[in-house]
Q: What sequence folds into this?
């Protein structure tokens, strides 16, 4: 349902809270650099220590919370000498909430750090190739989020998991959510704090698209018809689409509701409110535009779109290419893709349901594929690479949400006579350490 990182996710939020780690004595560290998850890197007596919240060039005091043979992890206690790049976090919950890890560093510097991480991860395949950047606004970008609802000792906690913890941090507001979702969150919190429904909820899913705003309530216990009616009236009052996911169901019931949709490239994409869509709507549009520019499909091209979802890339590609085949493992998303093709009158686009962890070369080779776009989950697409090699596409455009698996897959493709010609990072999740990327391969 959610393929890539979702830094506001709170699965199993009703579970028991974990104990705080035992802290060691305070020690002084000189911070030398940053690693991929926005932790400062320091050395003490020759041993590497990772310090969450510390920046390069700083002198800090920190307490060890985890130790191993190769490195230690520490919690920041005090900043003795601050970096010139340090800024005051915009969110009052930043020190506790695990949603954001980078608000103490200005966005341009966040992007520089992400470029450096990516350069390091991909050093074996990109050589001196420059890494371009796609970015948009640093806050108010997130169009969907999962909110935890937790009751402890009679106190209702509504928010997100804490930093490196399963503890739920109750928040007043989240400034990375789109303004409509911020308003929805405030209205929800006011009502939930005075409603017994909180004892029946596992989590809430907030969504903002071209249909409007919605909330999906994931129930862990059934509720009465009277309570359902109260919340139905609440949704009408606040102009919110309300969906219920019952305790014995894997998905929310959407019967009788207007379909969710968002627009891209003058196309309409409909989907189930729990289907995967990119959480940053503005950057998604830029990402699709860049993919189309890099691949430059023409009417002579047959394009294969792997891990296609409901057609985020497939439909725009079909406007330009001779033929597009979208492949997705989830049957419901394949059905949504087919419906979207009909809705947008895309007669040169078809969708297939297939397990992309298995070879499909016998089905795909006869299609004459010339170009491939793939947008796999964090695990990457290694299991499918042999099929790609047999297809012998002229170009492969790889959209990745994990630098390590991209590096692994890229090394394999380069060893099989493909060359990296373009690479870009995409700041899909500003204020977090997460980085997405796009890489174009051309067959030698």
A:
């Amino acid at each position: 349902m959610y393929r890539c990182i979702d830094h506001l996710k709170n699965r199993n939020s009703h579970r028991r809270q974990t104990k705080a780690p035992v802290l060691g004595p305070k020690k002084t560290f000189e911070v030398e650099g940053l690693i991929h998850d926005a932790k400062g890197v320091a050395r003490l007596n020759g041993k590497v220590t990772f310090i969450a919240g510390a920046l390069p060039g700083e002198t800090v005091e920190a307490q060890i919370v985890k130790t191993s043979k190769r490195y230690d992890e520490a919690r920041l206690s005090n900043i003795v000498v601050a970096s010139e790049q340090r800024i005051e976090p915009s969110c009052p919950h930043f020190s506790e909430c695990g949603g954001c890890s980078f608000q103490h560093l200005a966005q341009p510097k966040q992007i520089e750090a992400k470029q450096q991480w990516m350069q390091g991860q991909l050093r074996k395949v990109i050589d001196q190739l420059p890494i371009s950047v796609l970015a948009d606004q640093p806050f108010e970008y997130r169009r969907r989020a999962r909110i935890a609802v937790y009751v402890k000792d009679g106190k209702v906690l509504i928010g997100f998991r804490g930093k490196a913890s399963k503890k739920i941090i109750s928040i007043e507001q989240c400034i990375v959510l789109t303004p409509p979702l911020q308003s929805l969150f405030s209205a929800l919190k006011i009502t939930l704090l005075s409603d017994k429904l909180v004892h029946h909820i596992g989590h809430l899913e907030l969504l903002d698209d071209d249909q409007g705003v919605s909330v999906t309530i994931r129930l862990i216990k059934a509720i009465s018809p009277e309570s359902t009616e109260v919340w139905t009236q609440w949704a009408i009052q606040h102009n919110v689409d309300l969906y219920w996911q019952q305790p014995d169901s894997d998905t929310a019931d959407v019967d009788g509701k207007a379909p969710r949709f968002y627009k891209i490239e003058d196309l309409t994409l409909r989907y189930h409110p729990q289907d995967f869509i990119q959480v940053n709507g503005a950057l998604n549009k830029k990402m699709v535009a860049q993919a189309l520019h890099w691949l430059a499909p023409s009417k002579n091209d047959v394009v294969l779109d792997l891990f296609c979802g409901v057609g985020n890339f497939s439909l725009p590609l079909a406007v330009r290419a001779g033929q597009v085949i979208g492949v997705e493992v989830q049957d419901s998303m394949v059905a949504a893709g087919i419906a979207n093709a009909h809705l947008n009158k895309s007669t040169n686009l078809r969708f297939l349901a297939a397990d992309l962890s298995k070879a499909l070369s016998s089905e795909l080779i006869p299609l004459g594929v010339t170009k491939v776009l793939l947008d796999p989950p964090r695990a990457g697409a290694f299991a499918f690479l042999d099929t790609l090699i047999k297809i012998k596409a002229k170009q492969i455009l790889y959209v990745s949400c994990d630098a390590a698996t991209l590096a692994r897959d890229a090394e394999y493709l380069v060893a099989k006579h493909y060359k990296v010609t373009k690479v870009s990072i995409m700041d899909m999740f500003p204020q977090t350490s997460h980085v997405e990327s796009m890489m174009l391969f051309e067959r030698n």
